[in-house]
Amino acid sequence: MEELFQLGHESSEPADINLCIFLHLKEFLVIDRRDPGTSIFHLDSTTIFDESFISKVEEGFASILREPCEHPFVQFMDLPLRLEEHFREMAIAKILEHLDRGITIDGPPNIAVYVIGGPSGDMGPQDVHLACRSLLGEHSSSAVMEELSGLLAQLMKQEHRVIRNLNREEIREMLGDQSPNFFTLWERRN
Predict the structure, then answer these.
(1) Nearest residue to 162 via CA among 24, 22, 59
(2) How many other CB atoms are found less than 10 A from the CB of residue 46?
(3) 64 CB-side CA count, 13 A
(4) Residues 6+ positions from 46 with CB-CB distance below 8 Å
(5) In the prediction, which pLDDT does 85 show?
(6) Angle at CA 44, nearest 5°, toward 43 and 46?
(7) Bridge partners (DSSP) listed for residue 31
(8) Structural contact between residues 89 and 1, judged by C-beta atoms closer than 8 angstroms
(9) Cβ–Cβ under 8 Å, residues 28 and 45
(10) How many CB atoms lie within 10 A of CB 157?
(11) d(CA 116, CA 162)
(12) How many CB atoms lie within 10 A of CB 179?
């Protein structure tokens, strides 16, 4: 599964499959550049993270926990990383299964994952267009470019709105002494 991510792989060509994940949304985008032509999928995470997915993750986690080892403390300290790797592999496999378009290729596709959040919501139309161009490549059709630009801009605005609302809520909690993330250096108690 490591070869799917091509860690450290640099190329001027966009990946075969690009995942655009929005941290605070259930929706995500998949840009599949494999033949026959580029396809854009606007997916809901609930279609991927269904009951069968959760069962497979649980089975894999149980298997990882039960692996015999000589150094149990090291194994347990390594558990979060191994669980993350297992979850990532299962999620990519489920997305590829969902995208199955009868495409036959030599070897696994090159996959890029873009996590979108924070300041990306402030991107203007020109920046969104440049981002889409890098995801699609130079020779993509204007119809596909328009579709991706519209979807990406829409989801980025939704992400930005959610973050803004979360920040407001956090400030309200802070001002109301309800947040464990903030504290008063000097408090007058009379």
Answers:
(1) 24
(2) 10
(3) 19
(4) 26
(5) 93
(6) 135
(7) 18, 40
(8) yes
(9) yes
(10) 12
(11) 12
(12) 14
d(CA 122, CA 125): 10
The token pair at 97 is 């299964």
Please report where in the chains the tokens 């986690």 appear, as a residue: 61
Where do the structural domains in the chain lie, given as residue ranges? 2-175
b vs e for 116-127, b when ≥16 Cβ sit within 10 Å of the residue's Cβ?
bbeebbebeeee
pTM: 0.75
User: What type of residue is 182?
Assistant: F
* % of the chain beyond a pLDDT of 70: 81
Pick from 49-53, 122-126, 131-135, 174-178: least confident? 174-178
- Contact (Cβ atoms closer than 8 angstroms) between residue 137 and residue 14: yes
In this structure, the number of other CB atoms found within 10 A of the CB of residue 48 comes to 17
